[in-house]
Amino acid sequence: MSGLPSSLSQFVSSNAPAPQNLNPEQEDGIVGVFDLVKEYEVNGRMHRVLDGLTFKIGRGEKIAVLGHNGAGKSTLVRMIAGIEEPTSGKVVRNMSMSWPIALSGGFGGSMTGFDCMRFLSRIYNKPFAEIRDQVDEFSELGRYLRMPIRTYSSGMRARLAFGMSLAIDFDCYLIDEVLAVGDKRFQTRSFEELFVKRKDRSMIIVGHNLNVIADLCSSALVLKKGRGRVFHDIEAAFRIYSTL
Q1: What is the pLDDT along the chain (244 residues), one digit of tens a residue?
Q2: DSSP strand E in the chain: where?
Q3: Would you report the helix, strand and coil content of the chain in percent, each value rounded to 5?
Q4: Are residue 207 and residue 145 in the same domain, yes or no?
Q5: Residue 42 sits in the same domain as residue 88
Q6: Helices 128-139 and 154-167 sit at what angle, rounded to 10 degrees?
Q7: Are 118 and 200 part of one and the same domain?
Q8: DSSP per residue over 121-176, as a string?
Q9: 84 and 116 share a domain?
């Protein structure tokens, strides 16, 4: 495409069209953020990390989130997942939404793998035996599932977390650099389970691997210092991202 601005700061300063649906909560089959703002107090002053972001995806759609360190990607993931509340704006989840894939921060060190699965079974009302069998088969942790999480290596924790993420069937998956964990074999199996067997699901994919993103996504949100713009031409998104 010719005539593209040389940086995102130029691009977002143009007049972007306002969202057409003024009541996004009533729009079925979407996950999205609308005029999302997040501020933190830093040294007595308010620092704006996300600044009026708006985007959405429908069933089966896949959008990448691109941005360098400090752009607001991790904050956005926490907002979408419901781990943190926005300062203003809203997050709408009108599809069943996963937590960030492979997230293990909620594991208590004294809990065993089986304890974590029992908790998941209660929360999502799915038989424990089904979750146990799926996680055991995928993680290949065997007897370690009976041991406390604090005894696990980082790779073992990743296997457990990923297996639990796949044990529940979601309409939309939130993916944050998931294929950066584990050995090559584990990454290959993870890719097969998530992107091949669940290729009909919606996905919000945060990452830096442009080759993978080009294969999976048809659009991208490019972030810079908390502001962003959605590109429906993935190659155009990559060109803007490369100038940041």
Answers
A1: 434 444 434 444 433 444 445 566 667 889 999 999 999 998 889 999 999 999 999 999 999 999 998 899 989 999 999 989 999 999 999 999 998 886 666 677 889 999 999 999 999 999 999 999 999 999 999 999 999 999 998 888 888 988 998 999 999 999 887 566 667 888 888 889 999 999 999 999 998 888 889 999 999 999 998 899 999 999 999 999 999 8
A2: 30-42, 45-58, 62-66, 88-93, 97-100, 172-176, 202-206, 219-224, 227-231
A3: 40, 25, 35
A4: no
A5: yes
A6: 140
A7: no
A8: HHHHT--HHHHHHHHHHHH--GGGGGSBGGGS-HHHHHHHHHHHHHHS--SEEEEE
A9: no
Sheet hosting strand 30-42, strand order edge to edge: 45-58, 30-42, 88-93
Q: Which two tokens stand for residue 102?
A: 């492979």
Please check whether residues 156 and 224 belong to one and the same domain: no
Q: Are residues 92 and 207 in the same domain?
A: yes
Whole-number Å distance between alpha carbons of 133 and 44: 50
| Containing structural domain, residue 116 | 105-169
Alpha carbons 126 and 106: distance in angstroms, whole number: 19
Size (the chain), residues: 244
Choosing from 118, 137, 169, the residue where a domain stops is: 169
Structure tokens that stand for 36 in this block = 């999302």
> Residue 18's domain is classified under what CATH number?
3.40.50.300
From 151, 169, 187, the end of a domain falls on: 169
In the chain, the amino acid numbered 185 is R
